């Protein structure tokens, strides 16, 4: 393909949500769907989750599906402010719902009181109680279970039940996220308790969990919708949850189809097989803007910046990649400004670290790595690697600079970036073999188990969220923790661990800023991953579908799906 042709269709800006729905809304809504005789919205997305259990791993696909039918205890609202999801009133130091306590050994901790919403029930009608919260906390902290949220809940050392709806979290340190319990998932003790009790080995929990064996069990779900049909890797069907105490969802039924090839996803959209493409996990940016050019009269468009961080993880267990000179050379050899200009018309910022410019913790003073292949070559020579007969660098021990690079199959933009990386690294004497896989296998198996050299993908955080899950050494996936945790590069750095610990206990936002800056400086110096850019999203919505708020980097749009309606 000619360079000019490549540039013309690699244009853009942004991961894209194309919302197309066709159905009858609840009473009072205009009925575009009713006119067509349909009462179901069919959504397409390009990833499939390995699990629906909220404490097993963390992927965008699982978050998108669970956004329809589950809620964490609390977390950010659309603007990023702390908000109740399941609780009645957000506990704060100011309203007395939280307080700082002396622990008796010179340290201070916190007691945070949560009261569940009145009438909160599982989709089978069973009340959600404080006992469910206690059960869920114990389950997640059990080292034999290997829950993904174990590290983020580690500092909750006890829970006191006050009454069936009220419980107190006892935290062994001061924690500025004390009322943003986004990783505290409440699971149904009446469903999962008997499963756990019947296990000969607690390490078998995830494969025996009702979320894996009978995912359509109503008692598993706690949101405006409940799951009524599930084909792993293919589709999930939801209907309104009659026991949801919040505002009733306008849309009677939603089906999400998982189509891992974005070209097929677009084709299904154009033929009407699906109504709406999930922007968080939808078309590639070139497909989205191309569609806008063809069908602009049919849609409403919105561009939303976010905290989705696209990067290349580096497996530090590989002895060659453990050499900082090689990691720095790899980054210096990437022409990131040209990538963002060609693919995104220069609208997306090149990343110098994992904290986006839109986040309060961002430090604009982090030194960037320029595109400098000459400097990259010098570093590789300094590391002992010189070009061989075929141009690939080799050291005195005969070790070649040859690595695999993986990304999610079917994502056209990522595959184009792979080709660019492969060419740029080849130019400085590094051989790259592409080893792509489905999102399910790559994100839920290969990355946690360290079965990669370099991996191109994205992750998203909520505003000012401590990077415990991604960077703390305790979050390195190992056999001992059943490969839980998101520190896929295996980055173990005492200074980073200390800074994360200091960040978490600092209540003053102004005093947190220099700590955030120091963490970013260490990240830029040590390069556990190679930063590429921060994504934005193009939301393309039919003019008759209302209530969708992209939410930026705050969360998936499904977290507010009860607000979607047809006008």
The name of the CATH superfamily of the largest domain reads: Dipeptide-binding Protein, Domain 3
- What CATH calls the topology of the largest domain is Dipeptide-binding Protein, domain 3
Could you estimate the helical fraction of the residues in percent? Answer: 25-40%
Number of individual domains: 3
Terminal Cα separation, in Å? Answer: 44 Å
CA-based gyration radius: 24 Å
**Which architecture of the largest domain would the CATH scheme give at its second level?**
Roll
* Main sheet: strands, sense, barrel: 6 strands, mixed
Mean pLDDT: 87
Strand content: 15-25%
Oligomer: single chain
Task: Characterise the protein shown here.
The chain is α/β, with parallel strands linked by helices and 567 residues long. The protein folds into three domains: 11-69 and 194-305 and 536-566, D-Maltodextrin-Binding Protein, domain 2 (3-Layer(aba) Sandwich); 74-191, Dipeptide-binding Protein, Domain 1 (Dipeptide-binding Protein, domain 1); 307-535, Dipeptide-binding Protein, domain 3 (Roll). It has 17 helices and 21 strands. It has a six-stranded mixed sheet, with helices on both faces. It is globular and about 70 Å long. The two termini are 44 Å apart.
Structural topology:
Layout: H1 3-9, E1 15-18, H2 32-36, E2 40-45, H3 60-69, E3 74-76, E4 82-84, E5 98-102, E6 108-115, H4 130-141, E7 156-163, E8 166-171, H5 189-197, H6 205-208, H7 210-213, E9 225-231, E10 235-240, E11 253-258, H8 262-270, E12 276-277, H9 285-295, E13 299-314, H10 324-332, H11 336-344, H12 373-382, E14 386-387, E15 393-394, E16 402-406, H13 412-427, E17 431-434, H14 439-449, E18 454-460, H15 468-471, H16 494-504, H17 509-526, E19 529-542, E20 545-546, E21 565-566
Parallel strand pairs: 1-19, 2-11, 2-12, 16-17, 16-18
Antiparallel strand pairs: 3-4, 5-6, 6-8, 7-8, 9-10, 10-11, 13-18, 13-19, 14-15, 20-21
Helix pairs in contact: 10-12, 16-17
């Amino acid at each position: 393909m000619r360079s000019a042709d490549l540039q013309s269709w690699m244009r853009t800006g942004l991961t894209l949500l194309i919302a197309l729905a066709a159905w009858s809304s609840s009473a009072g809504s205009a009925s575009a769907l009713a006119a067509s005789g349909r009462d179901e919205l069919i959504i397409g997305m390009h990833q499939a989750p390995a699990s629906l259990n909220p404490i097993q791993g963390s992927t965008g696909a699982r978050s998108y599906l669970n956004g329809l039918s589950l809620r964490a205890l609390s977390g950010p609202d659309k603007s990023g402010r702390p908000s109740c999801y399941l609780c009645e009133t957000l506990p704060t130091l100011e309203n007395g719902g939280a307080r700082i306590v002396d622990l008796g050994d010179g340290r201070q901790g916190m007691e945070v009181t949560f009261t569940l919403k009145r009438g909160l029930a599982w989709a089978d009608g069973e009340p959600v109680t404080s006992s469910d919260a206690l059960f869920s906390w114990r389950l997640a902290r059990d080292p034999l279970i290997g829950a993904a949220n174990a590290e983020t809940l580690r500092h909750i050392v006890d829970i006191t039940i006050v009454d069936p709806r009220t419980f107190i979290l006892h935290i062994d340190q001061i924690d500025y996220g004390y009322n943003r319990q986004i990783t505290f998932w409440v699971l149904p003790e009446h469903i999962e308790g008997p499963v756990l009790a019947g296990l000969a080995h607690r390490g078998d929990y995830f494969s025996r969990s009702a979320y894996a064996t009978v995912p359509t069990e109503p008692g598993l779900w706690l949101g405006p919708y409940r799951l009524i049909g599930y084909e792993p890797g293919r589709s999930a069907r939801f209907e309104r949850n009659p026991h949801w105490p919040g505002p009733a969802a306008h849309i009677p039924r939603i089906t999400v189809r998982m189509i891992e090839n974005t070209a097929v996803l677009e084709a299904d959209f154009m033929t009407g097989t699906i109504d709406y493409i999930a922007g968080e996990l939808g078309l590639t940016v070139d497909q989205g803007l191309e569609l806008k050019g063809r069908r602009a009269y049919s849609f409403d468009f919105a561009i939303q910046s976010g905290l989705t961080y696209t990067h290349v993880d580096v497996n530090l267990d590989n002895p060659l990649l453990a050499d900082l000179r090689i990691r720095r050379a790899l980054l210096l050899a990437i022409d990131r400004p040209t990538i963002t200009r060609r693919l995104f018309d220069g609208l997306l910022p090149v990343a110098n670290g994992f904290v986006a410019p839109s986040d309060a913790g961002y430090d604009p003073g982090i030194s960037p790595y320029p595109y400098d292949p000459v400097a990259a070559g010098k570093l590789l020579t300094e590391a002992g690697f010189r070009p061989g007969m075929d141009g690939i660098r080799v050291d005195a021990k005969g070790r070649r600079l040859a690595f695999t690079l993986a990304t999610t199959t079917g994502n056209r933009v990522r595959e184009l970036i792979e080709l660019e990386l492969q060419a740029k690294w080849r130019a400085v004497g590094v051989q790259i073999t592409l080893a792509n896989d489905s999102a399910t296998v790559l994100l839920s198996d290969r990355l946690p188990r360290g079965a990669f050299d370099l991996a191109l993908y994205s992750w998203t955080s909520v505003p000012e969220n401590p990077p415990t899950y991604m960077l703390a050494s305790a979050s390195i996936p190992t056999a001992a923790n059943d490969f839980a945790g998101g520190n896929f590069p295996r980055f173990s750095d005492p200074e980073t661990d200390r800074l994360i610990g200091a960040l978490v206990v600092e209540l003053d936002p102004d005093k947190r800023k220099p700590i955030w800056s120091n963490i970013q400086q260490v990240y830029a110096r040590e390069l556990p991953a190679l930063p590429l850019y921060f994504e934005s999203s193009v939301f393309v919505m039919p003019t008759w579908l209302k209530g969708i708020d992209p939410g930026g980097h705050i969360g998936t749009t499904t977290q507010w799906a009860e607000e979607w309606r047809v006008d």
